[in-house]
Amino acid sequence: MKINREQVEHVARLARLALSEAELDTLTVDMDAILGYVEKLDELDTGHIIPTAHAVPVENAFREDVIGTSIGTDKALQNAPEASDSCFVVPKVIE
Questions:
Q1: Which CATH architecture has domain 5-41?
Q2: Distance CA 35, CA 3 (A)
Q3: What is the mean pLDDT of the chain?
Q4: Quick one: three-class SS letters along the chain?
Q5: pTM recorded for the entire structure
Q6: Domain ranges of the chain
Q7: I need a surface site. Which of 14, 23, 59, 87 has the fewest CB within 10 A?
Q8: What is the pLDDT confidence band of residue 31, given thresholds at 50, 70 and 90?
């Protein structure tokens, strides 16, 4: 066994979890199984594998930043519910 009940109780206290006796027993078995699986993964020889951040090549999906023409203030305010002095009028949210 890689983890014992006292260690699970300690982790539960650190996480501020109130666990029943049955939950502690179940978690002890589950966490032991997880640690056993991780230990099994440690047996793999990964020395020849290049570290990567992604499993597949990732390319930038953004378009180039090209300067274009603006739609203009009048057209931008055309569908505004209310406008004043070339600005959008919005409800006051701070008292």
A1: Orthogonal Bundle (1.10)
A2: 8
A3: 90
A4: CCCCHHHHHHHHHHCCCCCCHHHHHHHHHHHHHHHHHHHHHCCCCCCCCCCCCCCCCCCCCCCCCCCCCCCCHHHHCCCCCCEECCEECCCCCCC
A5: 0.48
A6: 5-41
A7: 59
A8: very high
